[in-house]
Amino acid sequence: MNRFFAELKRRKVYTVAIAYLVGGWALAQGISQLLPVFDIPIWVVRLVVLLIVLGFPVALVLSWFFDFTRYGIVRTPDLKDKIDILPAATSNERSIAVLPFTDLSPGEARDYFGEGIAEEIQTALAKTEGLRVAARRSSFWFKDKKADLKEIADKLNVEHVLEGSVRRDGNRVRISAELTDCCNGFTLWSETFEREMQGIFALQDEITRAIVDALKLKLDISAPLASRLVRSTAAYDVYLHGLFYSDRTSEEDLRKSLEYFERALEKDPQLGRAWTGIAKAWLWLADAYVAPLEAYSKVREAATNALEIDNDDAEAHVYLAETKRILDWDMDGAAREFGRAVELDPKSTPSNYFSAAFWAARGERDEALVYLQRTSTIDPASLWVNNSACELYRYFGLYDEAMKAGERALQLDPAFVYGEPLLAALYREMGRFDEAIALYQKAQSISGRPAFGLAITYARMNRSDQAREVLARTIASRGEYTPGDAVAHVNVALGARDDAIRELERACDERSSSLHFIGIAPEFAPLRSDKRFLSILNKIGLEPAKVFAAGAAP
Fold first, then answer.
1. Is 329 left (phi over 0), alpha (psi -120 to 50) or beta?
2. In angstroms, what CA-CA distances link 554 with 412, 437, 521, 523?
3. I want to staple 491 with a disulfide (CB 3.0 to 4.6 A). Which of 284, 409, 431, 496 is the partner?
4. Cβ pair 82, 43 in contact under 8 A
């Protein structure tokens, strides 16, 4: 019954019921007063009132299935189709989401600080055996969403939620935190702490241990958690600034994060996490804003520096693995780095998602699917994870799973601003061309950038002139660098095989990061008998027979 009443609330049935009763009562009163003035028979008044009464259950039924949104009337998605399409937690596993702490500081807003404190606690909790912790992107997605704790817990498939606030005044820091059991709504633990900024690391550790104690779990780390590799609170504060901007997608924000990370290193050259942050920023700048040869060289330098300071930094191993894959085509070396990252941090999104993509590109289907499932459990509300998972599942021909991931991405952001909506590519492969075009055009109307996928779709519909026109606009919109394999996708669909091979060779020379997926991508199936195409696959470290067998049947 609790689930049923929660569903009534989610579908806004209560809201519609109250609005209908108030509006219906007002309308009935108005009719009963107004119609007799015009000598309208009383039976007409009674009929109208009866229709209002009979319309009440109809309105409730309609409110169950449909909702009014800024995009018009849409069907309310079933609960099983929302973000939380995840396996239930096992009876022995506890689970928690850490929300970004609210900043209550006077004067200048410090959102970066509240988010940074929450992430430190989240990272420490992830090291607890028997505790599943929702990833940062998923937990932080609910910031400013005005969702209640029960809804958040349901969507992230967790039992507990930690929320809190921070207040900085000069060198004093006050942190209030509260742990809620969302199954029954009871507060398990809450406390307010006040320290000098110099004691912030010990305070984070104290909160972490209090939460673990409240959950009756064991934190198997003897040394203080957050303070092990941080020596300067001033450097740490600047580092949190960089971390805040590194999770955004614009070139301006990513370059701003680089500035903060570099300033943090000036204050403390041994702050290895700042080097990891630099590697992360350059990774996301690569291909989209900066040519890969330049960007990934900087990723490798930063990741190497981070590992010289702390060889147990799992995220730095992920970024180093990507440089081995992209710059060196050293697939075995990349596999070792990915394996080390998973060994060090098996619960992190970077370790699992990048491993899933890597094994998919190599044609290791079962390995890739394991990591994809782990990622969806750890990070169910990440827009970029769900969008990319849609593509990987599509490569394997798993259209049901791809559809779920793609639809979750659209639920997370109906306006869709993250690159190309890869659900549209799935629509295209299913022959749903009109839906694919509509989704591409919607994304373009917001981002201002046409999509390669739209050109492919037109080409597949034998609308060659439109395909070439979209391709030209897409290349022009990307500035100085356009991945050769992206252009080759369109050329294959147009039947221009020589042009496609030439663009793939350019992608090799320029080290496009997405080049390794041409073997498994069904769009390139027409080239699989071409010796030049097979030569490119061998050159970049792939086994053609394996990747062809792993992908969807052409």
1. left
2. 31, 22, 9, 8
3. 496
4. no
CA distances from 198 to 102, 203, 230, 498 (A): 21, 10, 11, 63
Rounded distance between C-alpha atoms, residue 380 and residue 140, angstroms: 12
- Here the tokens at position 132 are 């599943």
Q: Which is nearest to 424 in space by CA: 447, 452, 396?
A: 452
Report the distance separating Cα 153 and Cα 125, nearest Å. Answer: 17
Q: Which uninterrupted H or E stretch holds 95?
A: strand 94-98
The beta-strand segments (E) located in 145-285 are 160-169, 172-181, 186-196
Nearest alpha carbon to residue 210 among 197, 196, 225: 225
Cβ-contact 425, 435 below 8 angstroms: no
Contact 551, 395 (CB under 8 A): yes
42 by Cβ neighbours in 10 Å (0-12 / 13-18 / 19+) ranks as exposed
- Confirm if 135 and 379 have CB atoms less than 8 A apart: yes
Residue 189: beta bridge partners?
179
Q: Per the structure block, which two tokens stand in for 135?
A: 């990833």
- CA 355 vs. chain centroid, Å, equals 16
**What pTM value is reported for the model?**
0.76
* Tokens describing residue 490: 């369109």
C-alpha 472/C-alpha 42 separation (Å) is 70
Q: How far apart are CA 45 and CA 545, in angstroms?
A: 77
How high does pLDDT run on average in the chain? 85
Please tell me the predicted confidence (pLDDT) of residue 293: 96
Cβ atoms within 10 A of the Cβ of 3, count? 9
The H or E element spanning position 183 is: none
Pairing label, strands 66-69, 72-75:
antiparallel
Report the pLDDT value the prediction gives residue 311, as an integer from 0 to 100: 94
Distance CA 156, CA 172 (A): 34
> What digits encode the pLDDT tens for the residues 33-73?
777 777 778 777 788 888 888 888 888 787 777 665 433 45
**Using alpha carbons only, what angle is made at residue 85 by residues 79 and 90, rounded to the nearest 5 degrees?**
115
Per-residue pLDDT tens for 245-287?
Answer: 998 888 999 999 999 999 999 999 999 999 999 999 999 999 9
Residue 223 has pLDDT above 50, yes or no: no
Q: Which residues contact 412 (CB under 8 A, 6 or more apart)?
A: 83, 141, 381, 382, 383, 386
What type of residue sits at position 38? F
3-class SS string, 449-505: CCCHHHHHHHHHCCCHHHHHHHHHHHHHHCCCCCCHHHHHHHHHHHCCHHHHHHHHH
Cβ atoms of 167 and 104 within 8 Å: the answer is: yes
